[in-house]
């Protein structure tokens, strides 16, 4: 007989979902630091608009990270909390942003978004189809919408 956690979800079904959320959390942490590096190191005639845009993106990532960690806790587990875990588990990789052209920075962020969107779709599927967790699915759908719209805008900026 399976046990039900404190918010009415079956523990057994939540374990895989929490693993997916923790992997998403690890990827967001590396993405967050990448965007911070872009914010600090952007140069050239696009400085003003990209400096502000990168700040918007890392602020959003920081809020997302906190929501992900708190959702993991809500589901009864602990979120990953070390950079060693983040680096080991993340599909998103660190880059050196010093001296990187602005267009390459934006392309790196777009690549991160593409990976995050794929992961978020997997979490939504797991949450709805396997765990019956509409709360997690709803939260992730909000993250997904932001990245889809922002991806479109960044692609327009690079002319793609």
From TrEMBL:
* Pfam (any one): Ferritin
The UniProt GO MF terms for this protein read: ferric iron binding; oxidoreductase activity, acting on metal ions
Residues forming the Ferritin/DPS domain are: 19-160
Check the record and name the InterPro entries matching this protein.
DPS_DNA-bd, DPS_DNA-bd_CS, Ferritin-like, Ferritin-like_SF, Ferritin_DPS_dom
State the similarity comment.
Answer: Belongs to the Dps family.
Q: What is this protein called?
A: DNA starvation/stationary phase protection protein
Give the species: Pedobacter cryophilus
């Amino acid at each position: 007989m399976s046990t039900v956690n404190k918010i009415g979800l079956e523990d057994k079904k939540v374990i895989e979902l929490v693993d997916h959320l923790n992997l998403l959390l690890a990827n967001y942490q590396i993405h967050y630091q990448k965007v911070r590096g872009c914010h600090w190191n952007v140069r050239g005639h696009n400085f003003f608009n990209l400096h502000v845009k990168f700040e918007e993106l890392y602020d959003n990532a920081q809020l997302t990270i906190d929501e992900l960690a708190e959702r993991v806790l809500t589901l009864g587990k602990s979120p990953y909390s070390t950079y060693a875990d983040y680096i080991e588990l993340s599909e998103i990789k660190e880059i050196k942003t010093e001296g990187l052209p602005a267009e390459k920075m934006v392309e790196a962020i777009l690549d991160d978004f593409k990976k995050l969107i794929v992961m978020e779709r997997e979490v939504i599927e797991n949450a709805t189809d396997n765990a019956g967790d509409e709360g997690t699915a709803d939260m992730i759908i909000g993250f997904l919408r932001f990245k889809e719209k922002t991806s479109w805008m960044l692609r327009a900026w690079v002319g793609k």
